Amino acid sequence: MLFRLVRPLLFALDAETAHDVALPSFRLLQRCGLAGLPGGPLPGPRVRAMGLEFPNPVGLAAGLDKNAEYVDALAAFGFGFLEVGTVTPRPQPGNPRPRLFRIPEREAIVNRMGFNNVGVERFARNLRGARTRGIVGVNIGKNFDTPLERAVEDYLACLDAVHELASYVTINISSPNTRDLRRLQQADELGALLRAIVARRDRLAGRTARRLPLAVKIAPDLDDGQIAAIAALTAASGVDAVIATNTTTSRAGVEGLPHASEAGGLSGAPLRAASTAVVRKLARELGGRLPIIGVGGISSAADAREKLDAGATLVQLYTGLVYRGPRLVREIVAGLAAPAVRAA
């Protein structure tokens, strides 16, 4: 109810300003006990994946809380897990504004944020101060001005900084908004990157007696050969999951609409089918060797079930929350537990 009342006010603002207003407001309401939110993970179908026990399979995708500033407020929505970031070793402002655009006619968003964040040192302080004891993953990337041949150094620096704080770490190689980043999805580049990160993770595990799960986040704009190569590399590498997918550079489904021609990645309802197709192909190639976290265009329990039926073990939301509000989490968790949805 509250979101339905405030949504027109938020949508009267440009998209990034609305984001900057909404998150502190939710945090204030949550702290005052006025948000009308579950207050913690909703009970639902429990899932074990990556060596972790998820209270329900519905997670928050990276990008909403880039700096781990709102972990407690977002945990109150009822998610089974959160993913925060993307964080880079050094602070960076991201791309110039405007860089976030709604396409309400299709419940879509175009963003070219560019990994704007406070840097991993401050990020880690924020995360350390969170009170939630739920599952919180950290999405890591490289600084925009780090040469691609030195990208591994940035990933390792972030891994070192968040190792003791994160429930799992996601290696983001698929944002379209950092120049040449998606080249890291190519077989040679990806193999070398994963070997280095997994080796560092294993060394840290030897010192701390804690094996941190690793996930790799891939793009929806991959052909069948690329998906097969990524499946083979990830399954053999020692990582623990694949997240499919990030935003798309395609504009299928939004052609001719205001903001559709803006540069950046498209998320939301128009991405749903393409993302699900990648999940299905990836699941076929992996053959159960790794779990898949499905993300892209989920705005209902039926959308989430579609991802699970395609081969995902867990799902994540972002753009659906912008259009439907926090109640979407409750609706999806309840829907996934309902026999009618399971039989659909």
Q: What would you say this structure looks like, in words?
A:
The chain has about 350 residues and is α/β, with parallel strands linked by helices. It has one domain (about 40-340): Aldolase class I (TIM Barrel). Helix content is about 40%, strand content about 15%. It contains twelve helices and 13 strands. It has helices at about 1-10, 15-30, 70-75, 120-130, 150-160, 185-210, 225-235, 270-285, 300-310, 320-325, 325-335, 340; strands at about 45-50, 50-55, 60, 80-85, 100-105, 110, 135-140, 170, 215-220, 240-245, 265-270, 290-295, 315. The protein has an eight-stranded parallel barrel, surrounded by four helices. Strands 5-6-11 form a three-stranded antiparallel sheet, with no helix packed on it. It has a two-stranded antiparallel sheet with strand order 1-2. Mean pLDDT is about 95; it is low at about 340-344.
What secondary-structure arrangement, pairings included, does this model have?
Layout: H1 2-11, H2 15-32, E1 47-49, E2 52-54, E3 58-60, H3 71-75, E4 81-87, E5 100-103, E6 108-111, H4 120-128, E7 135-140, H5 151-162, E8 168-172, H6 187-208, E9 214-218, H7 224-237, E10 241-244, E11 265-268, H8 272-286, E12 292-295, H9 301-310, E13 314-317, H10 319-324, H11 327-337, H12 339-342
Parallel strand pairs: 3-4, 3-13, 4-7, 7-8, 8-9, 9-10, 10-12, 12-13
Antiparallel strand pairs: 1-2, 5-6, 6-11
Helix pairs in contact: 5-6, 6-7, 7-8, 8-9, 9-11
